Amino acid sequence: MDFSYLLNDALTLCLLIILLVSFLFLCLWYGLGWLRMGLWKDNRLPKGKDFPDKDLPSVSVVLVAHNEADALKKSLPYLLEQDYPNFEVVVVDYTSTDDTRFVLRVCSENYPNLKPVIFSHDVNMFQGKKYPLSIGIKSASKDVILLTEPNCLPSGFNWIREMMTGYAHGADIILGYSQVKPQKSLLNALERYDNVTGSARFLGRALYSVPFTGSGRNLSFGRDFFFAKGAFINQYSFPEGADDLFINRNATKKNTAVVLRNGAETIRESHPTMHSWRLERQDRMAARRHYSMAQKINLAFYPLMQMLFLASLLWLWIGGTMMWQILASVLAIRIIWELICFYFLSKYFNIKKLTYFAIFFELYFLISNTFLWLVALLRKK
Fold it and tell me: Among the four 133, 219, 350, 366, which has the fewest Cβ within 10 Å?
């Protein structure tokens, strides 16, 4: 095959370079991100059963609830029955109008380690949950804070114990995984795909010693560390983000550990509607406005390369300046490699059935997340 004509066709040569660079980047992304995570073995940290009770820190599990009575009925027994020597559960009931207060009162009668913090009136001068969450952390009496949410269930009764193994080597922050409970619906499938790829990104970066965020559904840090870093004081001016932005500004390769093993994750219910899920994703996108410029560029690189790959491929195909067999081969190689990497990732997080739809979900989120990112940029303060 003679490709000498490319030397006289600058546009085609430029498109080929873009196609090659984006192809290599995406292959590395899937390999170093998804495949590496899928093959990860958590051998650096001891198991929870290997820790004597006397060596375990005291723990305050903190969560904020607003009209979450039904969720608390399910989650509180799992939280309060944890197999752990010294812990409490702090629930901040912020201006709930349902049966949340009644649920907390009934549980308090049976569990002395439950500490309700009740707000009857909205005294939050700021937007978002930073204020009630900070009050919950301030009300905690134990050495270590472990965050979760009312709609999250621990995957077992050793959840606290397994998460605390992250402090074995002197870390100040522990990042954990929270999975979405599987259901037979398109919304649930999309949400699980988004959750596992997003978790692979921030947990994988932390494993590479470049932590940049965390999930408040399964996250721990020292109580003294929280207040020593100023808590949320420098974040109250914007409503987006709370725990994630605190981690973004204070996590380093030396003070952060990741715990990925059975028993250390939480399981949350899927969102009831597409609208509620979209609002959560939009807030997550909006919080990224407060990341550093380097982190913004890093997060934008993957969707940018996806767009460049598809655009250059389509342009070369429509223009007819490159044999369609070559273009089809490049596309096929990328898809097969992506599916292989996602298979191992989904197997690791036990969502293997989504592998067959990974390509379609990727296209959906490329369009959807780009739109949400633009909305977040234009959203008023």
Answer: 350
